[in-house]
Amino acid sequence: MATLPTEWTKRYYSIGEVAEIFEVNTSTLRFWEKEFPELRPKKNERGVRKYTPENMEAVRRIYHLVKERGFTLKGARQKYKDNPTDVVQTEDVVRRLLKIKGDMESLKKQLDSFK
Question: Which residue, among 45, 48, 57, 66, has the nearest Cα to 21 in the 3D structure?
Answer without folding.
Answer: 57
